[in-house]
Amino acid sequence: MGILSVIVAAIGGWVFGAAWYMGLSKQWVAAVGIEVDENGRPVNESPLPYILSFVAMILVAGMMRHTFAMAGIDGFGKGLITGLGVGLFFISPWIMINNAYGQRPFRLTMIDAGYATFGCAVMGAILSLF
Fold first, then answer.
1. Which of 45, 68, 90, 110 is the most buried (most CB within 10 A)?
2. Quick check: is 40 in a domain?
3. Relative orientation angle of helices 106-127 and 48-71, to the nearest 10 degrees
4. Which residues contact residue 97 at a Cβ distance below 8 angstroms, ignoring those fewer than 6 apart?
């Protein structure tokens, strides 16, 4: 059941990310400074970021599952809150550091950290269902 829960949680986090970034696409493109075509789509778009992001979701979900098992975290509420904490207090600060040193706009940090926070909450909630 472990690998299945990791895969389902990774899919949940990835799908949440797709919705998050579609909803904030104009703000994200402006913050990143990506060149877009007349339809607002990035020029030279590649499938690689989508593939890498899914691999990353599997890694995050796998480690979250391991951490949940070691800490005895069970139940939907505990999984949701712990996932939220992982995103907010582990991943988001790291994003902030990387963006600060790269001199990226703070609004990019907020967009990406929001995804990390709520995406991990979604994954934590899903992991707690297995």
1. 68
2. no
3. 50
4. none
